[in-house]
Amino acid sequence: MSALLPIREVEKPWGKDKLPAPFSAAEGMRIGEIWFEPPAALPELLVKYIFTSEALSVQVHPTDAQTIAKGLGRQGKEECWLIVAAEPGGKLGIGFNADISDEAMRAAALDGSIEELMTWHDVSPGDFFYIPGNTVHAIGAGVSLIEVQQNSDITYRLYDYGRPRELHLEDGVAVAKGEPYRLERWSKHVPAHGSQLLVDGPLFVLEQVAGAPTAEIASRYPAALLVIPREGEVQIGGETIAPGGCGLAGSLADIRFADNGVCLLARPCARIV
Fold first, then answer.
1. Which residues are catalytic?
2. Does the pTM exceed 0.90?
3. Burial degree of 52 (CB within 10 A; 0-12, 13-18, 19+)
């Protein structure tokens, strides 16, 4: 079985017809997302590249506890974003400028003013944001990023700039936190070269690794993991995985890292509700 995960190209109204290397869009297609199909051996995480030419909807995701309470099983969605490119003016909207009630949030979603009530962050390559469940968020135009998330497709749209897509106001407002985003806790800047722990549970572990991992880094990956090369190639069981790909390794022992390479490592944690 190949270590390289198959990809799915997802067209979006806000996608791009010209993608950064090594990706490309077929003529007439607007690709918004590149998904790496979660392997049966590690189904808990989904890795994506996201490319925007227009702003995404203002949206929110539930937690595992909330989806279990609704009888949907563990379908919560927490995610994180690593910015890989941003055009001038590229922004992310995360949380609100001030506390807001459910009623005010619903009204703002209906009249479009919710966008003005959110906090917008200018972004550049290396900026990293963790998005807990219940956090209202949106990705602005001109941003390319890597997203690592719980493998769930439950998204509640609160506002979509007039696009003819379904909104989910009642479900969304019911789970959304009308509060500011804790930037000092959930965000950081990741240097282009160097190792840095980005997420340390409780749902998954994610970090950037330069060269071969140290013993301390290796201790965080005792079993199967995903490998996302950023610079240089890695080999998993003798198979080469290049930047733009994502591979599954049974263990760190199966991976040969490039001395000057940079990659992301990710693994799920046991889900606890």
1. 157
2. yes
3. buried
